[in-house]
Specification:
single chain; 164 residues; mainly beta; Trefoil (Acidic Fibroblast Growth Factor, subunit A); 4-stranded antiparallel beta sheet; 1 helix
Length: 164
C-alpha cells in the first residue's frame, strides 16, 4: 500500500495490522489489560502474534507535528510506547501507555515497496522491531517480542494490512 493511500485513508476509524517483513504472518500484538491511566514506565504487553485478530489491530492517530500514535483498536486509548529502559544490548523496551505522548509517537518512513518502519520521536534513530523467536503458531499470550532497535532491517519493517 502506498504511503499516500495510507495517510489519506488514515483516521481514528481506519484499522490496520502491522505485518512483519521478516516473519510470515507475524503481527504486532498488544495486551493492554489494566492500562487505564498514564504511568511513567508504561504497562501492559506489546509482543508478536501469528495471525491478526482484534489485539493486533491499530489506528494511526495523526499528531500535530506530522507524527502518529499507534493506538490499539482493542484497548481504549492505549498506545504503543517505546521507553527509555533497555531490555538487552541494543534493544529498548516497548510496552503500552494510556494516551499518546512523546514516547508513543512515531514517524512513518517508507523503506521499500509496500514496506514501512516506525521511528520513535522520543528516541531518534530507534525503530520498532518484531522477532517471533522461532514461533510459527499462534499463542494466547502472544509470541516473541517487539522492541526498539537501531538496526533498520527486515525485523523493523512492516506491511500495513487492513483490519476490520
Amino acid at each position: 500500500m502506498e504511503q499516500s493511500k495510507i495517510l489519506s485513508a488514515n483516521s481514528t476509524i481506519a484499522a490496520y495490522g502491522f505485518a512483519s517483513a521478516a516473519f510470515a504472518n507475524a503481527y504486532i500484538r498488544m495486551d493492554g489489560q489494566g492500562v487505564t491511566k498514564n504511568t511513567s514506565p508504561g504497562g501492559g504487553v506489546v509482543n508478536a502474534q501469528i495471525g491478526m485478530g482484534p489485539w493486533e489491530q491499530y489506528s494511526l492517530v495523526p499528531q500535530t507535528n506530522g507524527t502518529f500514535g499507534l493506538v490499539s483498536r482493542q484497548w481504549t486509548n492505549v498506545a504503543v510506547r517505546m521507553g527509555d529502559a533497555m531490555i538487552a544490548q541494543g534493544q529498548r523496551q516497548v510496552n503500552c501507555q494510556f494516551g499518546v505522548g512523546p514516547y508513543e509517537t512515531y514517524r512513518l518512513l517508507v523503506t521499500g515497496p509496500n514496506l514501512f518502519t516506525f521511528e520513535s520521536t522520543a528516541h531518534a534513530g530507534w525503530y520498532l522491531a518484531l522477532d517471533t523467536l522461532g514461533q510459527t503458531k499462534p499463542n494466547g499470550a502472544g509470541v516473541g517480542k517487539v522492541y526498539g532497535t537501531q538496526t533498520l532491517d527486515a525485523k523493523a519493517q512492516f506491511q500495513f494490512i487492513p483490519g476490520t
